[in-house]
Amino acid sequence: MSSQMCTNGKAMDEISGDGANSATLSVKPVVHSPTDGPLCAECRQLDKPFFDIKCSDCESLLYDEATTVSELFAILRQWIPQTQQNILMIIEQVRTIT
Ligand SMILES: [Zn+2]
Q1: Which range marks the domain in which residue 48 is found?
Q2: Could you tell me the CA-to-CA distances from 81 to 17, 84, 86 in Å, in that order?
Q3: Which residues surround ligand 1, an ion (CB under 5 A)?
Q4: How far is the CA of 30 from the centre of ligand 1 (A)?
Q5: In a domain, 83, yes or no
Q6: Buried b (16+ CB within 10 A) or exposed e, 69-92
Q7: pLDDT tens digits, 10-28
Q8: Residue 69 falls within a domain, yes or no?
Q9: pLDDT confidence band for 75 (50 / 70 / 90)
């Protein structure tokens, strides 16, 4: 009878309600063509293979207006612990841009 009253359910309602208000049905899907993840100049010089979220210059690229959704998805594809631990932050950035 009261199975829908748990706090988890409430949080999910808030999330889906937000999406329904802004973007769900009326917006056409957008294709973001794949690209490499962003790297700061220093990491590029060090020839690092991955966007390094622990590097403060790379991290600031996350919030850079020039960083594209494609690049954020490239970071998400680096399925390493640093990405996994910061996935909410990255998703939030995708939401901010789109
Ligand atoms: Zn860096």
Answers
A1: 32-98
A2: 30, 5, 9
A3: 40, 43, 55, 57-58
A4: 29
A5: yes
A6: bebbbbbbeeeeeebeebeeebee
A7: 444 454 545 445 555 667 8
A8: yes
A9: very high
Q: Which class for 58: exposed (0-12), middle (13-18), buried (19 or more C-beta within 10 A)?
A: buried
**Amino acid symbol at 72:** L
- 51 near 75, Cβ under 8 Å? yes
Rounded Cα distance, 34 and 16, in Å: 27
Average pLDDT over residues 55-75: 95
Ligand 1 geometric centre to CA of 42 (Å): 6
Total domains in the fold of the chain: 1
What is the whole-number distance in angstroms between the Cα of residue 68 and the centre of ligand 1? 17
Find, among 47, 50, 42, the residue nearest to 81 by Cα: 50
H helical segments located in 7-67:
7-22, 41-45, 56-62
